[in-house]
Design a protein that fits this description.
- This protein has 3 helices and 3 strands.
- The protein is α+β, with helices and mostly antiparallel strands and 101 residues long.
- It has a domain of 65 residues: Ribosomal Protein L30, Chain: A (2-Layer Sandwich), CATH 3.30.1390.
- It has a 3-stranded antiparallel sheet with strand order 2-1-3.
- The radius of gyration is 23 Å and the shape is elongated.
Length: 101
């Protein structure tokens, strides 16, 4: 059996830490304002795609209308990509961006 090696007094013991974050950083689903879709239609699409109640859907619709965009959700890449495709199927301008933590 090999002898147990102990550090010399005054030396630091370094432990390996995982540099990979356990949690995925996440991706933002952003809807952009456009001159084509009416506010009621955008509200309806948000309710349909995300299952939101009318109040939440209207809040995000107004954000899109007044500020030019709204961050609708933050999710994994796969879910965010799915939401973007769903919104685009309804002719909304939507993109996905990495969340900048």
């Amino acid at each position: 059996m090999p002898p147990l090696e102990l550090p010399l007094p005054g030396t630091e013991i370094q432990t390996e830490e995982s540099t990979k974050d356990v949690r995925e950083p996440g991706y933002l689903v952003i809807c952009w304002n456009d001159p084509i879709n009416h506010m009621g239609y955008v509200t309806h699409v948000f309710q349909t795609v995300f299952g939101w109640n009318r109040k939440k859907a209207e809040r995000h619709m107004l954000e899109v209308h007044e500020q030019g965009k709204s961050v609708l959700t933050r999710d994994s890449f796969e879910k965010a990509e799915f939401y973007v495709h769903q919104l685009q199927k309804y002719s909304l301008q939507a993109t996905l961006e990495p969340a900048g933590d």
